[in-house]
Amino acid sequence: MSKRHVTMAQALVGFLKNQYVERDGVENRFFEGAWGIFGHGIIAGLGQALQQNPDFPYYLCRNEQGAVHIATAFAKARKRKAAFVCTSSIGPGATNMITGAATATVNRIPVLLLPGDIFARRNVAPVLQQIESEHTQDTSVNDAFKPVSRYWDRIYRPDQLICSLPEAMRVLVSPSQTGAVTLALPQDVQAEAADYPEDMFQKRVWHIARPEPESGLVERAAEWLRAARNPLIVAGGGVIYSEATEALARFAAQTGIPVGETQAGKGSLPFDHPQNLGAVGVTGTPGANIAAREADVVLAIGTRLSDFTTASKTAFQNPQVRFISINAAEFDAYKHAALPIVADARAALDRLASALKGYGVPARYAQSIAQWKARWEEETDRIFDLRHGPPISQGEVIGCVSRAARAEDVVINAAGSLPGDLHKLWRTRQPGGYHMEYGNSCMGYEIAGGLGVKMADAARDVYVMVGDGSYLMMSSEIVTSIQEGYKLNVVVCDNHGFSSIGGLSQAVGSGGFGTDYRYRRAPSGQLDGAYLPVDFVKLTEGLGAIAVRARTREEVEQALEAMRGHDRTSVVVVEVDKEMRVPGYESWWDVPVSEVSEIEAIRRARAEYETAVVKERHHEIAAPAEYVETKTT
Ligand SMILES: Cc1ncc(C[n+]2csc(CCOP(=O)(O)OP(=O)(O)O)c2C)c(N)n1
Ligand SMILES: [Mg+2]
Questions:
Q1: pLDDT per position as a tens digit, 585-599
Q2: How far apart are CA 300 and CA 238, in angstroms?
Q3: Is the CB of residue 500 below 6 angstroms from any atom belonging to ligand 1?
C-alpha cells in the first residue's frame, strides 16, 4: 500500500478535509474548516498544516470559548450534518475551550476540539503554561476535557491518528452519541513525520442512519394513544435534528394530539399550527402546561426531559400518566420509565401515524386545545403591545423584533431572562427560526453563536437578542463577524444587571442581592450605589460595528428598519425595565431555599418552597402495569 510521509498535523488536516456525511441520499463535506488562536503549542504543528491546506479554511476568533460557541451554533443550525474544528494552543487557550465543550456536549452538538498539549518527550518540561504534577507526567490541563467530551484521546505517537480519527468521526456523526470530541495534540508530536497509509486521505462518507422503530413497540404505543383521553406530545430538539418537523405536523394534524415544545424543540411546528400549544415547562404557556398537568399519555420525542421541561418533575400530575419516548439515544428513551422507542424521530412518527389511522383526540379535548391557542395569541399580543415606560418592557422589544424578522430569519439567545420570554413569546414560522442554547444556558453564547448561525445559512438574517450581562461577558466575536463579512443584527436589552437571577433572588427571599450592576457604596459596603455607566453604543462602535440607542418602541422599530440597510454587524441598545417581567404560567422550578435563616423573607420563601416541592414525582419508578406485563400465550 502506498504511504504518505507527512507530519502528524498534516495527516490530521488531510484526513479531516476528506470526511463527508450523507443522510437521505444528500451528501456534504462534514468539516467546513478550523477556528483557533495560535500560540507556541500549535503554531508550528497544526498551524503550519492549516497554512499549507488553503482548501480547509482557518478562521481566527477572539476567544477560544467564542470559537467553540460559533462552531456549536453552526452545527446546530446545520442539524448536526456539518461542523467545525476548534484548535488552541496549550494552557489557557485550551482551557478557554472547556466551557464551550460543555455547552456542545450538553446540547448534543458535534464539535471537534484540537487543543495543543505538553511535550510527549518530556525532556524540556516544564514548558510555558504547563501545570506540573509531582505524581505523574501523564497529565495536563487537557485532562479537564474528559468529563465534557463524548470522546477523548491524546495522540502520543503520530501513528495513533490512524486509530483515533475514525473513533472521533463515529461519535461526531452519531445522532445518539454526538457532542464535543477532544483530541489533545502534544506540541512535539504535531510536527513529527510518519508514513501514513494513502487510504487515510481518500474521501470517506459517513452515513447518518434513520433507525426504524420496533414494530411491536409502535403497536403498543398506538394502543396506549388510542386509549388516551388527553395525550400530549413533547417535541424536543431531536425533532428538528432528525428533520421530522413535517412528519410531526402531519401526525399532529391527523391525530389532533397537541404539541408542547421544549427550548431545543421550539420551531418543530410553526407557531400557528392548530395543534401547537407553544412552549412547555417552567417557561411554558398556560395551555401547554395545563395539558401537561392533565395528560394521561405523554409522547416525548427527541427530548432529554430536563428540569425546565418537566418543571422539576411537577409538570405531569395525572396519577395515571404514562410516557412513550421516541429517541435516537437509548439513554433518553428510557427516562420516565417510558415505553422506549429507540429510533429515528421521523421514521418512528411515520410508523406511528400509520398505526393510528382513524384515531382522533376526543372532541372536548380538541375544543380546549383551540381555546388555549386563541387565548395564548391574545396574551402574546397583550405583552407585545404593553406600552410601558420608557424604559420599555423586554416583552415589547421581542414583539418589535418578531414583527421585523422575516419568516425565514433566526432569533438566537442563551441566557438571562430572554430565554424564558422568547420561549413563550417568539412566533417561530420555520424550523431553525428559533435558536436557543438552553442545555448549558451559557452567557456569552449569543453573539458568537449568532455568527455560527449566519455562517450556516447566510440567506437567513440573524437577530441576536442579548442581555447586558451576556454582552459584557463576551461580545468580542463582533470583531470576527466583521472580519468574515457576516452581518449580525444585535439587540442588547440593557437592564443594568441580571433581571433573571435578580428575580430568582427575590423569589427565594434574597431581594436581588448581588445581581445589579451598581457602584459599591459606603456606608453599607454593598453594591447598592448608582448604576454603573456602561455605554454599549460606544463599546460596540469600538469593535467596528454600527450602533444606535433606542428608548421608545418607535425608536426600536426605526432602528430595526435601519439595520436592514446596513452592510455590517449592527446593534441596537435598548434600556428595558427589569421589573416589568413576562409572567410565568402554571409552572414551577426547584431552586432550594435555605432551610434556616435570620431573614424573615427567606423563612417565608422556604415555607412556600416546602408546599411546592411535594408535587415532585418519581416517574422513573412508576412504570404502569401494561408496560411491565408480558404476554404468556
Ligand atoms: C457563564 C454563565 N455564568 C453565570 C450564569 C448564571 N446566570 C444566568 S442568567 C444570568 C444573568 C444574565 O444577565 P443578562 O445577560 O443581563 O440577562 P438578564 O437576566 O438581565 O435578562 C446569570 C448570571 C450563566 N448562565 N452563565
Ligand atoms: Mg441584564
A1: 999 999 999 999 999
A2: 10
A3: yes
